[in-house]
Amino acid sequence: MKTAFVLFFILLGILQVGILLSAWSAYRSQYKPTSLKYWSIALGISATSYFCFAVTLGSSEELLSKSNFMMTVANVLVVAGVLFQGLFARALRTEITPKLIKTFLVLMAIYAIAFEFTRGHTSFETRTIFVGLMLFFIYLWQLFEIKRTKKLNNSLQLKVLLGLVALEATFILLRVVVIYVANAHVQTLAQVPPLASMLLWLQLTLNILAYVSMVAFWYEEVTKATVVAEYENVKMKSLLEEKDQLLNNLVKTKKIAELGALSASIAHEINQPLGALKI
After folding, report:
1. Phi, psi dihedral angles at 187 (to 5 degrees)
2. How far apart are CA 197 and CA 202, in angstroms?
3. What is the pTM of this model?
4. Between 34-59 and 70-91, two packed helices, what is the crossing angle to 10 degrees?
5. Contact 161, 210 (CB under 8 A)
6. Which of 9, 124, 232, 239 could form a disulfide with 50 if both were Cys (CB 3.0 to 4.6 A apart)?
7. In whole angstroms, how far apart are CA 58 and each of 2, 7, 44, 125, 217?
8. Which is nearest to 114 in space by CA: 87, 75, 81?
9. In angstroms, rounded to a whole number, what is the distance separating the alpha carbons of residues 236 and 39?
10. Measured between alpha carbons, how far is residue 29 from residues 41, 71, 222, 238 in Å?
11. What is the rounded CA–CA span in Å between residue 33 and residue 163?
12. β-sheet bridge partners, residue 188
């Protein structure tokens, strides 16, 4: 069980780094929404948390080792990653203010202190329920932000993201219920209820898919922005060509008018002597 968990977290971390690198072309495009920054931060923090979990679980057999501070670091990073996911969802429709960022940093500091206390003074069940409920409410906030954005942009990827986040919240809440009901006095990974482990693996897999849907949404938006830009360029080029053609026509018309005036003047000068001769 321990090896399976370690390998699973390493795999998740590698997948998230791969997703982050796959978005490189989005960074190089002219269309760079603010939400891209928060998505990247969330993904980087999440990948780091998975590697921290792999190191933590690989170095200790006991899940409640009071000397393992890395467990606090990993859990704080998990919550921070989910919070930045929420900022990504909010940034899709409105600006993120510095005040909101500072508020979140304060909340993270409070959460870190609270988790460190639960790690040293409470059971695995209490700690898991605390973290699970924290994540559940953050995911509810994400759902709220994505729904509001979907009203402005009815993108297929946003619909997929909404469904994935809803499933994540559901699996987290179910895991909290399973841990609470089982009350197994867990000390090692082998004692974790299998259903709780399965729900965790499903939720983390859905989280990977959620990040994929986010980057797919970006590519969709980048494609739209590129098409609009190309259309505007073609339209501008067409207008410039029409302008040049109009100027050329005006020049030609002016020359013809000048030539007509010159011809009329010459004809007048010729007709005057001829008229005098006739008299």
Report:
1. -120, -30
2. 9
3. 0.77
4. 160
5. yes
6. 9
7. 7, 9, 21, 21, 36
8. 75
9. 34
10. 18, 38, 8, 25
11. 23
12. 62
Whether 97 contacts 61, CB under 8 Å: no
Give the tokens for residue 243: 């302008």
Place of tokens 């979140």: 104
pLDDT in tens, 100-151: 999 999 999 999 999 988 887 888 888 889 999 999 999 999 999 999 988 8
The position carrying tokens 């053609």 is 245
